[in-house]
Structure formats: C-alpha cells, structure tokens
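Researcher: Structure prediction, please.
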Amino acid sequence: MGGNGRDEYRCERKFLIDALDTSQVISLVKMHPSIFVVPYPPRYINNIYLDTKDMTYYHENVTGAKDRRKARIRWYGDLFGDIARPALEFKIKDGFVGTKEHHDFPPFKLDGSFDIRYFRKKLDEAARHIKYYLRDLDPVLVNRYLRSYYVTRDGRFRLTVDRELTYYNIRPHGNNFKQRFCDRGNVIVEIKYATELDQAAGRISGYFPFTLTKSSKYVQGIEFVYI
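Model: Predicted structure follows.
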C-alpha cells in the first residue's frame, strides 16, 4: 500500500463471534450459497492507533457518534523491526456508511525505542499535510491480527475473517511491548459492499448464525490493555 487517496463510501456489516472457532466460521463462509472465493492468501495486519490526549476518537466510537473517525498507521507482515512501507489511514464514518483515506508515512522501526518522542521525530520526515493532520495525535495502541479474504464471484461483496487478535499498550517512554492482551476466543467477520447493495447484503448476512455488532478493534484494544 502506498500513495495518497480516498476510497469510495461503502457499507460494512460486522460480527463478533465467540461461540465458534475459526475453522467453523471459515466452513460456514465456504458453504455460503453466494459462493465466496479466495482472492489472495491470509496475511497479518498490524496497526498503530493514534488519538488525542483526551482520547477523542475512542470516546466518539464508544458513544456511537454519527460522524467519527479513527487514525492508524498500518503495515503487513512482521510486527516488530524495520517497517519499510507503512501507510497512514483515516477511517471515516458518516452515519451508516464509511470510507478510508490513505497517505504515505515515513519508514520507521517498532522496537523498544519506539515512544512518543521517536514518533514525533519520524513525523518531522513526513509531508507537510501529514504533519498537519497528526499535529494533535499520539500513538496509543498497537494491534495485530491474521486476516483471511473472501469475495463473491461477481466481486460485489467482500468478506474478511480476523483472528489471533493481539493488543499492546504504548507508554509515553520506554516500550518493551511485553504488556499485551491476546484475544484468542473471538473471531471477527466483516462484510463490505457498495451502499446500493444493502438489501442484498441483508440476505447474505442472514445466512450466517452470527449476531450483528458494532464491535471496534480499537475500542476493544483500549479497554483490554488500559481499562
């Protein structure tokens, strides 16, 4: 991932599943009458979430504010070490639809030297508009999960299965990343589609024995490692 831009607005249905394990969830996906296929192999996704000192983004998500956003730096593969191609993302929610903005972010290293001072130093290397966007934000949470990808043959519906959810807190100074929470019991399924396909999405999601949820990995992570 790289470059700057914004995705089209889309809808998203999310399910937090604690009664089935990953293999059972994936079996249900494979048996779905809409015929989901695998576009590419599973991969690990890593995020550093950013927030204001007052945790504005966290509180907006908890209260379900109509217009809200989340800010994160995302990369794939190994969690620790040299991060060569990170991307800054803003996930923007407007009522029931949402979009993402993508921006380049300077390469950095995630290890024991990573703290707010180091983050600010890397931010000095970023483009001017990135410095402006992040002027009041600090890193507060690291999370990582393994994602499997599925898509209907007509390409209109994307489905992801996330597991091995792991969260780390970020202290202002001296992070050894030993304080973490591993959520091995939950699986998260998301169905993503264009806004005009909401009725058809209801039929697709209705096949699954899952309960629709407003679960947020960011909110969960903050509550797991801080509260």
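Model: The chain has six helices and 14 strands.
Researcher: Thanks, that helps.
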